[in-house]
Amino acid sequence: MLQEPWKHLKSGTDVRGVALEGVPGQSVDLTEEAVRAIASAFVLFLTEQNGKKPGDCTVAVGRDSRLSGEAIASLVTQELAKAGCRVLDCGMASTPAMFMTTVYWHTDASIMITASHHPWNRNGLKFFLPGGGLEGSQVGEILEKCQAGLTAPAVPGGTVEKRDFMDVYADGLKKMIRDGVGGGEKPLAGFHVVVDAGNGAGGFYAEKVLKPLGCDVSGSQFLEPDGRFPNHVPNPENKEAMESACEAVKRAGADLGIIFDTDVDRAGCVDSAGREINRNRLVALAAVIALQGNEGGTIVTDSITSAGLKSFLEESLGARHLRYKRGYRNVIDKAVELNEAGINAPLAIETSGHAALRENYFLDDGAYLATRILMVAAQKKAAGEKLEDLIAALKEPAEGTELRFAIRAADFRPAGEKLLADLEEYGKKKGWNVADDSYEGVRVSFGKGAGEGWFLLRLSVHDPVMPLNIESDTPGGCKVIAKQLMAFLEKRPEIDPSPLAAYLA
């Protein structure tokens, strides 16, 4: 079992920690020693997986724009080469591109240095094999080797080569657009796209993908990599970031806006009116695209999608909606499981913007999703139509909120699970409409006069926290729903209900 400090560095399917001093109360735990140990342990893990000797393994290493990225990537490449591996140092890259090195270059593995949208002082490592990203249990195996002091022996012959994969990756996206849109070498001539890279690794999309296709990218912003993220958080879920992208589209009069997170595994969009296509709207649009040729297929989402989205998917699109657990790997793994069982599930998507299409190795790739959306938008414009018309039937909630409650119990998971079981029983006794298809937490719907919406209370995957999501189809409905839930939570000593009390006040 993992113990500190290694346990603290495991974050789901990634390694993450504090890499730089500068934030009060946060000391560096992703130290040089820790990074070297993790890279060396990964070599042991890799050779156990593929049965090769380190000298026969090729591993690609990339990083996003974080200030600590170059130093950490250098440590990783040194350790891999010391163990005898052939290392391809890809420099600045996106997370999905690093997986694609296993497809284009047939590498045995790749490592991406990133902490996604987390603050500038944090960083981490994400691992890929040809079959996809490592599972959380596999990351745990690597850290357990570190904990046991296991390292790969030094073997002569390891090499480090500098290779730019982003040109190769961009060429693949350009070919996809040319094949899908038509129009020769410049199929996007007359089409205007604003790209907001948030000073992360996504600036390549404007420069290496869109411009060569004749696209007008004027008005694009924050394309220059800058690990301080001086303009806004590189995160499509962030309110200020999305507002900035929407304003940029309106200023430029563009046909489409695209906003990426730091390492480009997520994207959000903005329509020609400057309205965001994010969360439920992004899920709806991605589903329209994924269901082409997959009519009646299953769309796998996370648990906090709206009631209106379910109606749109099932009634307007004729799809089946499987509302699964939070966590992008959860929805991806579920979609893969369904396909292996013979069920047509072409899309796995989380409301955070992680979207994985079966046609693209079920890889959560923001640039790939943006490209698929862009192709449809260009075709719609050529026909005198608008992209947003495709999701016009989506009924959106009037309001929504998310709160997080700290669990006071030391052993938080059993305490949280018991609270959820008691809430489900309480709701049924009260005559609430408790969902019978929830894969996590308790979801309850309310009709007219009772809030006209729903809440979902669940247990965080890693932390002693219970997130609560509430949505309503009527203004003021969220508080009506919240009051009903408060009657239950205020009597539970194992949870701190003060966030809900403050919301109601």
Structural overview:
It is built from 15 helices and 22 strands. With 505 residues, it is an alpha/beta fold. The chain folds into 3 domains: 6-163, Alpha-D-Glucose-1,6-Bisphosphate, subunit A, domain 3 (Alpha-D-Glucose-1,6-Bisphosphate, Chain A, domain 3); 169-391, 3-Layer(aba) Sandwich (Alpha-D-Glucose-1,6-Bisphosphate, Chain A, domain 3); 399-504, 2-Layer Sandwich (TATA-Binding Protein). The strands form 4 sheets. Strands 1, 2, 3, 4, 5, 6, 7 and 8 form an 8-stranded mixed sheet that branches. α6 (166-181) crosses α7 (204-210), α6 (166-181) packs parallel to α12 (366-382) and α14 (477-489) packs antiparallel against α15 (498-504). The relative contact order is 0.09.
